[in-house]
Write a structure and sequence with these properties.
Structural class: alpha/beta
Radius of gyration: 23 Å
Largest sheet: 7 strands, mixed
Number of helices: 10
Strand order of the largest sheet: 3-2-1-4-7-5-8
Shape: elongated
């Protein structure tokens, strides 16, 4: 079994070299054949040059670089990596190992042990999972946002918005998707549920390491900063609300029927009694 690991990045020059070296070190411990696909999503700092240098250095370790000049969004970046991936299992995850250094093995292990599982999602919302060193505002938004989306979409999944997942290649390559930004994660889960694919979650801890926290204030463009946070929240909520319109039709239908019944009864009781 071959594993393809896909990690997009955007303006990560301060942590990129360390992150790529750490990921390669972790992947080297795998007993599976693997390839590491890094996707430059239109970075405008020195990230691309750093990535090119490292790819040349590790060219014998199956490290591939995809790059394009304009920032297109995480969903677009992931799809570029998925399109060229040659593995039987495709893992998508953050490039800085913030989900733990064994996350790839943990996800792949589930696929290896249960061939019926088609998607495995890392979730901090399961018992045993959680957040470490992550700003409280981000934790609250993620927790309550996923609770709300779960209410709107399905109770079968606790983590709709996370990127760290494992897919069977034939599933994710053939799943029709259109979203180019972070709504891609929601779209994949929604369509996977609609097609009846088996999804399993594993508890994981998301940790923001010190260098990530420090780089968050020094980068050319911040990670999902407050300037983009409102857009992210509103887009996810609208996506969740519109993802299952049938339930709203049922609700409105029942409400209209109830109102109609009330008026019918009121009208019936108000009719004068006529004796012939």
């Amino acid at each position: 079994m071959k594993i393809s690991i896909i990690s997009p990045f955007y303006n990560e020059s301060l942590i990129l070299e360390k992150s790529i070296k750490l990921m390669i070190s972790n992947l080297s411990a795998l007993s599976y054949e693997w390839e590491f696909i890094i996707v430059n999503d239109g970075s405008c700092d020195d990230s691309l040059n750093i990535a090119r240098t490292l790819v040349k250095k590790y060219k014998d370790n199956n490290v591939l670089l995809i790059s394009y000049p304009i920032n297109r969004g995480r969903g677009y970046a992931l799809k570029q990596g998925i399109n060229v991936a040659s593995g039987d299992i495709i893992v998508t995850t953050e490039i800085d190992a913030s989900w733990g250094e064994t996350i790839v093995l943990d996800l792949v292990k589930v696929c290896a042990e249960d061939p019926s599982v088609e998607i495995v999602i890392a979730s901090p919302h399961l018992p045993g999972g959680g957040y470490r060193n992550v700003p409280k505002k981000r934790v609250l938004l993620s927790t309550w946002g996923n609770i709300f989306i779960r209410f709107l979409v399905s109770k079968k999944v606790t983590m709709f918005t996370g990127m760290t997942r494992a897919y069977r290649a034939e599933i994710i390559k053939n799943l029709p998707t259109t979203e180019q930004e972070k709504e891609f994660h929601l779209e994949v889960v929604l369509k996977a549920l609609a097609f009846g694919y088996k999804i399993k979650e594993i508890p994981c801890i998301l940790e923001w390491k010190d260098d990530k926290l420090h780089s968050n204030t020094k980068r050319t463009k911040k990670r999902v900063s407050s300037s983009n946070l409102n857009k992210l929240i509103s887009s996810h909520l609208f996506f969740g609300i519109l993802s299952n319109p049938v339930r709203y039709l049922w609700g409105s239908g029942v409400a209209i029927a109830a109102i109609g019944l009330v008026f019918f009864l009121w009208g019936s009781l108000s009719l004068p009694l006529v004796i012939l």
